[in-house]
Design a protein that fits this description.
Number of strands: 8
Mean pLDDT: 83
Strand order of the largest sheet: 1-2-8-7
Shape: elongated
Radius of gyration: 27 Å
Largest sheet: 4 strands, antiparallel
Strand content: 35-45%
């Protein structure tokens, strides 16, 4: 908390904080399908086959449209170096990357752990999973709630300082929202995991924080 009193202008400046924690209702994950084969065409064909199996599985879980996007496609040669012969091409690796968003839209929704397990099953040895990112489908509502709490916190502090100085709060002179950076998530007991998945995925609670600095005139 930062408090400053300007005696010349008879004002008081306080900082209020508001935090709202909620369990994220969507998960983003990166899925990469790779295949290494002696010929470029064979590598692409293998990737296409595995990618089709993965995307068909995802659509079966309701992941489609903007929640399923191809974000990368590449191919490169694999080489080995031999004494007296130098570098030789031994094959080609093709890869494609998918960005998926799984929405937890109620008790009947498929859990992200189930979707991840299904992707691994469909892609087999050709699949690679990137990091998981937990987020909210409506972050603006949580920010607005945190902002309400930050204002209430600042107002309570300002009223206390006004009372201690035997004055009252007048008009608001300045308002500024303070960037505090990301707040680390808090783990909670609630987890979600598919019965057939060997790895549990913990969503935890993700806090949304707003800090505000407000200056009131003292009367």
């Amino acid at each position: 908390m930062t408090v400053a009193t300007d005696h010349a202008e008879r004002s008081v400046t306080v900082r209020g904080s508001g935090i709202v924690s909620a369990i994220p209702d969507l998960v983003r994950a990166t899925v990469t399908v790779t295949a290494t084969r002696p010929a470029v065409a064979d590598a692409f064909e293998a990737v296409a086959r595995s990618t089709t199996a993965v995307t068909d599985t995802l659509r079966g879980y309701g992941v489609s449209g903007p929640d399923l996007a191809t974000t990368g496609l590449s191919v490169h040669s694999e080489t080995t170096w031999t004494e007296g012969r130098g570098s030789e091409v031994t094959g080609y690796t093709a890869a494609t990357t998918l960005q998926i968003t799984v929405r937890e839209a109620g008790a009947s929704a498929s859990s992200s752990a189930q979707v991840v397990a299904a992707c691994v099953g469909a892609g087999g040895d050709d699949i690679r999973l990137g990091g998981l990112e937990f987020d909210f489908s409506d972050p603006a509502a949580l920010t607005a709630s945190a902002r309400d709490r930050a204002w209430a916190d600042a107002l309570a502090k300002a009223e206390q300082y006004a009372s201690l100085s035997r004055r009252a709060l007048g008009e608001v002179l300045d308002i500024s929202e303070v960037d505090t950076g990301d707040v680390p998530p808090r783990p909670v007991a609630k987890a979600f995991a598919a019965a057939d998945s060997p790895i549990a995925v913990e969503r935890g609670e993700k806090p949304t924080r707003v800090d505000v600095r407000v200056r009131w005139r003292l009367v």
